[in-house]
Amino acid sequence: MKLKLKDILPNPFRDLKSNPLIEEKIEELVGSINLTGFWDNVVVRINAAGKAELAYGHHRLAAALRAGIAEADFIVKDLSDAMMIQIMDSENRETYGSTPLSLIESVKAVVKSLAKGTIPAFVLAKDVRKDSIRYAPSFIPGGDVGGTSPQVAYTASNVAEFLGRMQSRGEGRKKPEDCIVAALNALHLKEAGHFSDDLLTTKDRTGATVPITTNELLRITTDIKRDVEHTAVVQTKSKAAVDAWVDKQKAVEEQRKEHEEKARLAQQALLQKQLAAKLEEDTKEIQRLGQKMREQAANAKLKQIADSEKLQAIEVKIVEAKKKAEEAKKEDQYASVRRDVERLLFRMDNVSTGSFCADIKAITKLPLTVKDRQRIWESAQALGNWYLTWVSAQVSTPVLSGKKELQEMKARELANRRKEEAAARAVEEAARKERAAAKAVAKKKSKETK
Question: Looking at the domain assignment, is residue 151 inside a domain?
């Protein structure tokens, strides 16, 4: 069927915003089209509105338009949404290879279509783990995430089977390809607010922006998931520690109130007995009861001091727990910087796989003269010295040796311990003075009675 190129719509599952067309590929195709004409075998479908939608070949269509072609013949097929997604993923894989952007595009299309019901629901395996189940349209694993919209269960294996991306595990067993797991991890972390699109690209040796590999995507998302899980565990433990001391503080406070109420009731009972004794003009009984009242008052004061000491000790523990929680928080805030360092080290450790090394291996297999071999060796040595000098200038902060770092850590621990001991001595001294004052008052009252 002959169609006007400007009227052709893109594949409805092609995310041109997150995964835009590559300008270099379009320019290459423009040259090919100018030389050979528009390529055949381009498939479209007619949607419910009567418009033609492209199944694949978005770069070819853009190049043809740029080359000035107004209309061309297209193959029209009756394609379902499921087939449009599968064709798009297969074409991207065969033509350009699997990239994180195209993988994420395909996986997202499967899950969103599953939620809309435009592709059939998946059948879960009987032995599937609950923490591996996700519910479309969400990408977060571990069970139903709630909400009012329909939610359809799926796993990484379901998505991989749908896209034809399962790999053998031996003895007839299969598992999803790592690239599918990496794409689902990225979508899960992005939905949870722990992943951004700038992590999908990196800089090559020329400084140009290039997409990362699927292996790098799997490593990056695995590292982020581990850091997020570690942060959650640390925060939970820190909160539990603070809550435990706060609960203990409340218990001691209740205990103090109970002691005060008992002392008040006992004092009131003795006052009633003293009044009765006065009515009976029993002077000795009045004196005995008065002495007992003073003793009880002194004991109540000592009990109050003891309760205050407990509260002060608990307050010190709460401060310590909050301090540990804050230190854990600071450590987790450094996680993103640590991932960047790990990413740089990964690239430096794997520099031998680059095209530059491949070029050296290839040329050294040729029958070089001794002079040319010497020149290559001297150039490599000069390049290595330049890199070492440049990197040393950038990383100007001195790196602590293991021994010096241990000495500084011990010095910090000693300073903190001295502060804690000084605070404890201050609390103990205040409590001692308060006890001595209470005993002095009780002794004075006892002498006055005699």
Answer: yes
Comparing 1-10, 102-111, 199-208, which segment has the lowest mean pLDDT? Answer: 199-208
Whether residue 159 is contained in a domain is answered as yes
Contact 8, 73 (CB under 8 A): no
Task: Give the domain-ending residue among 312, 335, 358.
Answer: 335
Let me know: does 107 contact 134? Beta carbons within 8 Å: no
Residue 19 — φ and ψ, nearest 5°? -125, 75
- E strand or H helix at 426: helix 402-449
* Whole-number Å distance between alpha carbons of 259 and 301: 10
Say if 343 falls within a structural domain. no
Phi, psi angle pair for 10, to nearest 5°: -70, 165
Q: How far apart are CA 243 and CA 315, in angstroms?
A: 12
**Domain count across the chain:** 3
3-state DSSP assignment of residue 95: helix
Q: What's this model's pTM, rounded to 2 decimal places?
A: 0.54
Q: Which of 300, 335, 370 delimits the end of a domain? A: 335
56 with 85, same domain: the answer is: no
Q: Could you read off the pLDDT of 186-228 as tens digits, one per residue?
A: 999 988 888 887 788 788 788 877 778 878 888 888 888 888 8
Domain membership of residue 344 (yes or no) is: no
For residue 10, cis peptide bond before it (omega within 30 degrees of 0): no
> Which DSSP category does 10 fall into?
P
pLDDT tens for residues 277-311? 777 776 777 778 878 888 888 888 888 887 777 88
Q: Judge residue 162's burial from the number of C-beta atoms within 10 Å of its C-beta, 0-12 exposed, 13-18 middle, 19 or more buried.
A: buried
Same domain, 73 and 135: no
| Alpha-helix runs per DSSP H in 98-213 | 100-116, 156-163, 178-191
